[in-house]
Amino acid sequence: MLIQTNPESHSHQPSFRKMGVVRNVLSNWGSYAVAMGVNFFLSPYIVRRLGDTGYGVWTLILALTGYLGLLDLGIRGAVTRYVARFHAQGKHDKAGNVASSALVVFSSAGVLAILASLVLATFVVSRMNIPAQYLMAARVVSVLTGLSVAVSLVNGVFGGIVVGLQRFDLTNSIEVVINILRAATIVLALHLDYGIVTLAFIQLGFTIARWMANIALKQFLYPELRIRLAAADRAGVRLIFSFGLFSFLMHVSASLIYASDNVVIGAFLPITAVTFYGIAGNLVEYTRTLVSGISQTMTPLASSIEAKQDESQLQRIVLFGSRAGTMVMLPIAMTFMLRGSSFIGIWMGPQYAELSGRVLWILSITLLFWAGNSVNAGILLGLSKHKPIVPVLLAEGFCNLALSVIWVKRMGILGVAWGTVVPSLCSSLIFWPWYTRRTLGVHPLAYLTSAWIRPAIAIVPFALGSYLIEHFWPVHHLLLFFLQVALVLPLAIVGYWAVCLDQTQRKDYSRKFSQSLERAFARG
Q: Does the reported pTM lie above 0.90?
C-alpha cells in the first residue's frame, strides 16, 4: 500500500518568501516520512493477516483499478498552475472558470471510472488467476476502488487549488492525519478478521474524508474563488488541456512501466506470485520518491537560470544535479543489491527472502541509472523541453509490457523484473546522454562521468563494507540491520567528499558547516 503525495506546483506570487519554501519542503518530507513509516510497519501485518493469496488478490485489484487514475488527464496539475497565476493577479473570475471547468471534466471522468470498474469486475477479474473463494470479494473490491478513484478525481479540483495557493503544509497535515487514522483502522479491522472488502471500504471512507477536508480548506483559503458548473466553458477546458496533455502522456507511460507488472503476473501466474513481486516492487517505489525531493527543486531553478540566458550555468546545474540524484540513490540501491534478501527476510518473513530478494536485486539495477536522469528531467521541464521525452517514455512502457509478457512464461516473476530493467537501461544509457547534448550542449562523456562514473567510484568503500557485514555479521533484527547500515554510511560520505565534490565545493561546504556549528553554539 504505497502512499504518495507529490503534487506539482508553479508559484507566481510576488509575496514569495524564503520561509514559505522552507515550510513547504519540510512539510513534504515530513508527510513522506510518516507515509513511509506507516507503510513499513503496516505491510508485514497486512500480509500476515490476509495471507499470501489474500494479499496477492488485494495487490492485483489495486493494480488493475490503478489504471483508472489515468482519467486525471493531467488536469490537477493544470488547476494548480492556473489557480496560482490568477490568484496572484487577482483575477478570481478566471480562477473560478478554470476550477469550474475542471470540475465538469473530473465529474465526467469520475462517472467513467465507476463504469470502468463495473466492467473490470464483470469481465476482467474472472480472467485472472484468482481462486474461486476470492472471486466475489475481488469484484466488490474492484467496484469500491472505482468509487474511490471517482472521488479522488473530483477531489483533484480542490486539492489542486490548495496546492496552487502554496499551502503544502496544510495538505500534508491532512495526509499525515489520514495516514495515521487509516493505519489504525486497518489494524483494527484485520485484528477482527475482516478481509479485503473491509479494506476497500476503509479506503473509500478516508478518500471521502480527504475530499471534505480539501473543500473546507479551499473555502477558508480562497473564498473569492467560486466553483459553479454554469461557469465552465470550452475556453476553460481548452486552457486546462493545453497544459495537461503532455503531463497525461507521461502519466500513461509511467503506468505502463510501473503498474503493469502486477497485472501481467496476475494474468499468467498463481496469485501468490503477486505478493512476492509486490514486496520488492514497493521497496523500489518508496525509494524513487526520495529523488523527487531533488528533481522538483530543479524545475524552478532551471527556469530562473534560463531567464538570465546563462547556458554555462545550466550545464553545471545539469552535471551536478544528475550526480546528486545518483549520490542519494546509490547507498540504498547497493544495500538492496547486497543485503536485500536479508532485509526482506527480517522485515516480511524468511519465506519471502530468497525470491523477493532476487526480484529486488534485479529491479535495483534501474535505480542505479534512473536517479540522475530523473533530476535531469526536472531541469528540462523547467526549460519547457520535456515534450520529446514523452514518446521515449511511452516506447519504454510498451517494451516493458511486451517483454514482461514474453519472459513471464519462461522465468516467472524474475522475467517480469527483467522486462522492466532492459527498456529502462536502454533509455537511460542511450537516450538521456544524447538528448542532454542536443538540448543543453553537455557532452555525453561529461554526462556519463558526472552522473554515474564518479558516484560509482565513490560508493566502492560503502559497497565493500556492506558486503563484509552481510557475510561476517549476521543479523536477525531490524534495529540491528539499520544500525549496521548507519555504521557503513560514513564510508559513502567520505567517498562522495573525495570523488564527487571539487575543491571549491569542499571549501564551500566546510565553511557552511562551520558557520552552522558556530550558530548552534551561540544559541546554546
A: no
Domain boundaries, the chain: 1-255, 259-524
210: Cβ contacts below 8 Å, ≥ 6 apart: 152, 155, 159, 174, 175, 178
Q: What is the pLDDT of residues 150-191, one digit of tens each?
A: 999 899 888 888 877 777 778 888 889 999 999 999 999 999
- 3-state class of 233 per DSSP? coil
DSSP string, 341-408: HHHHHHHT-GGGHHHHHHHHHHHHHHHHHHHHHHHHHHHHHHTT--TTHHHHHHHHHHHHHHHHHHHH
Show the cell assigned to 202. Answer: 476503509
Q: What is the rounded distance in angstroms from the CA atom of residue 175 to the CA atom of residue 36? A: 12
- Distance CA(338)–CA(23), nearest Å, equals 36
pLDDT tens digits, 335-394: 999 999 999 999 999 999 999 999 999 999 999 998 888 888 877 766 767 778 878 888
Distance CA(259)–CA(251), nearest Å, equals 11
Residue 377 neighbours by CB under 8 Å, 6+ apart: 295, 386, 389
Which segments of 459-477 does DSSP mark as H helices, in order? 460-472
Q: How confident is the model at residue 1 (pLDDT cuts 50, 70, 90)?
A: very low
Residue 9 pLDDT exceeds 50: no
Phi-psi category of residue 278: left, alpha or beta, with phi > 0 → left and psi -120 to 50 → alpha: alpha
Q: Which residue has the higher pLDDT, 218 or 232?
A: 218
- Cα–Cα distance for residue pair 441/315, rounded to 1 Å: 7
| Residue 190, phi then psi, degrees to nearest 5 | -70, -35
List CB contacts of 227: < 8 A, sequence separation 6 or more.
Answer: 96, 99, 100, 103, 157
